[in-house]
Amino acid sequence: MRRETINIPAGQSFRLIRWRSSVKEVESLLADGGSKPLKGEGSHWHYHPEMELTLFTTGRGDRFTGDHIGQFGAGDLVLLGGMLPHHWHAAGKTSGLSLQWHFPADHPLWQLPEADGLRGLFQRAAGGLRLTGAVHGRIAGRMEELAGLQGLARFGRFVELLATLAAAPAGELEALASRSFLPPADATYQESMSRVLRHLVRHFREEIRLADVLVIAGLTKPTFSRQFRRHTGRSLSDFLIGIRLQAACRELATTSRGVLEVALGCGFTQVSFFNRAFRRAMGCSPSEYRARASHSISLARASASSGLPR
User: Fold this and answer.
1) Mean pLDDT score of the chain, rounded to an integer?
2) How far apart are CA 184 and CA 186, in angstroms?
3) Closest alpha carbon to 34 in 56, 16, 57, 53
4) What is the CATH number of the domain that holds 283?
5) pLDDT tens digits for 14-28?
6) For labelling, which of 119, 174, 193, 302 has a CA lying 20 to 30 Å from the CA of 81?
7) Which domain holds residue 280?
8) What CA–CA distance (Å, rounded) separates 27 from 36?
9) Would you give the distance in Å from CA 165 to the centre of its chain?
10) Is residue 63 part of a domain?
11) Residue 178 β-bridge partners
């Protein structure tokens, strides 16, 4: 896990970045209308003190937020608290925008009485929030507009965006991590955990042997088990099951492969175990999940063709 150093551009209260094909290659959109290329850290397990609001405009993949594993697609919008570990594992090209800012306890912002309304929002965002419903559309639109503004108008739109977030109904803010998730203060094991996490995300469809993982980590079994849980909030087996289930959900929703083929292709060796794990995590069987996903897709297509809002 890496601690990313985010440099807010001089003369700005926040940083707005954009990427067009990969979160590895981003550009900082400056207040004077210019831009500066940067190396993005989003494809790695990382964290930073700054809060972050990230919108994917195209693409899909898996989203890792603290101890939460989920899928993202075009339109995915999440608010991340400071120091919350996160990672985007994209399946191909993506594009999007991300806002980053840091208002610590001694920041002048908190001297303004109107800023009190933000305290609750920032606290709730500690474990990450996924935005849905009407607030999603309002925030996504304002982020797109922000990229074309300069100077005081830009700052005003940013404040308006924060106010919209703070006023969002609780039902439109889906909590992600199960608890406020802070990385270990000791950075000794962060590189080892980064190597392991990259290996798991890339090879989860294959057999994962603990002995091989220990070699990659360069750690003993007790130390690895302790540090892996500290860094991810899960055991190795639970983490793998989470990745594999998310991949299975995606394939059930987008392909016609049979349940057995999906289970084996996503790294499960026994379909009975897959079915039990799937029901515990999703609250339904794989077949029921596929039927619901197909129904949702049909409704979305009908809505798009009729011009009705989704």
Assistant:
1) 89
2) 5
3) 16
4) 1.10.10.60
5) 999 999 999 999 999
6) 193
7) 190-294
8) 5
9) 17
10) yes
11) none
